[in-house]
């Protein structure tokens, strides 16, 4: 791979509030996106705090409302479906109440569910307790899927490949992407672009991906702390060359996002109108890019739509989505 972008080249700047062309709804509805990865159920308990417990110096929450939302790879698929794409989800869930709830929510979100059920797996739950829109506590329930069900997932992946235009790997380090290296290789052989939302410091397992979308902390864990933009460009160029990534999209929170390709480095300023909750924003970014690629939009333009979608979703509480009308309002 040739990394022809000079390390000291200044990135192109994309306007913060520049108008974006409308992609016809019919093109987006024709996009077929397969999301593969770790699924979880985001469970929210809302209540009031009027006193401190007599048993310990902790607040007592009088829970008055409960809400379940799709999390992890399921939230990514939900985001693609909300935009209007044909979204499929390949994942492993348990034979338990949270697993059934995930199935129910996927149906409501119009996501095609390709689920492998593992009787020994506890479907991952992230329970958040909130009062007056402030999170007081999070409790996680999780374990890892078995080898047998993961092999079945890999076999099913091969069957689903011809039916989709874009493959999206959503890694939350819960074990669902144990065979991600082989999946990427199979998808590339089939001529499908592969997008990866990474986790951890072993990115060799994502070798050959079309696009990888780390945030600052995730990239820093792999390439180390950069001292300047020039240093960052050098480290990213080296990483892309070594691991054969066609492109890398660095999401930088309030600083926007930067796309690194062979020929260009393009920076898009943050488009947030009001930052309320950043949880799930990365899911929205990669789902939007995948949807736009599936609709035939070039990668360089897909980033602009993803930036706009992220700016909308951070103004909502918890893992949320952006629909077609919101994106092109």
Automatic annotation (TrEMBL):
Cellular-component GO terms for this entry: cytosol
One matching Pfam family: PfkB
Region (Disordered): 1-20
Every Carbohydrate kinase PfkB domain range: 31-321
Record-linked InterPro entries: PfkB_dom, RfaE_dom_I, Ribokinase-like
Keywords from the named record: Kinase, Transferase
CDD domains in alphabetical order: RfaE_like
Composition skew (Polar residues), residue ranges: 1-16
Gene Ontology terms for molecular function: heptose 7-phosphate kinase activity; heptose-1-phosphate adenylyltransferase activity; phosphotransferase activity, alcohol group as acceptor
Residue ranges of coiled coil: none
Protein name: RfaE bifunctional protein, domain I
Organism: Caballeronia arationis
Lineage: Bacteria, Pseudomonadati, Pseudomonadota, Betaproteobacteria, Burkholderiales
């Amino acid at each position: 791979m040739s990394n022809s972008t000079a390390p000291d080249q200044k990135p192109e700047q994309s306007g913060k509030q520049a108008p974006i062309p409308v992609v016809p709804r019919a093109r987006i509805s024709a996009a077929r996106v397969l999301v593969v990865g770790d699924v979880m159920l985001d469970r929210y308990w809302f209540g009031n705090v009027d006193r401190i417990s007599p048993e310990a110096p902790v607040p007592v929450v009088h829970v008055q409302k409960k809400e379940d939302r799709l999390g992890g790879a399921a939230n990514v698929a939900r985001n693609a479906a909300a935009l209007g794409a044909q979204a499929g989800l390949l994942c492993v869930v348990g034979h338990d109440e949270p697993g059934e709830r995930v199935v129910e929510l996927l149906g409501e979100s119009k996501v095609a569910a390709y689920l492998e059920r593992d009787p020994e797996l506890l479907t991952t739950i992230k329970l958040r307790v909130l009062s007056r829109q402030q999170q007081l506590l999070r409790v996680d329930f999780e374990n890892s899927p078995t080898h047998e069900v993961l092999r079945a997932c890999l076999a099913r992946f091969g069957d689903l490949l011809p039916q989709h235009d874009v493959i999206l790997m959503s890694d939350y380090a819960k074990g669902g992407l144990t065979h991600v290296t082989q999946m990427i290789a199979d998808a590339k052989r089939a001529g499908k672009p592969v997008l990866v939302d990474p986790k951890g410091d072993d990115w060799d397992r994502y070798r050959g991906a079309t696009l990888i979308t780390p945030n600052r902390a995730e990239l820093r864990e792999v390439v180390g702390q950069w001292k300047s933009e020039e240093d960052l460009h050098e480290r990213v160029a080296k990483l892309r060359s070594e691991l054969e990534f066609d492109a890398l999209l660095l999401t930088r929170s309030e600083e926007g996002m930067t796309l690194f390709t062979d020929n260009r480095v393009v920076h898009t300023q943050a488009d947030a109108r009001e930052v309320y909750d950043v949880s799930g924003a990365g899911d929205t970014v990669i789902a939007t890019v995948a949807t736009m690629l599936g609709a035939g939009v070039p990668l360089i333009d897909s980033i602009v739509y993803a930036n706009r979608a992220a700016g909308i979703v951070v103004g909502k509480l918890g893992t949320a989505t952006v629909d077609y009308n919101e994106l092109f309002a």
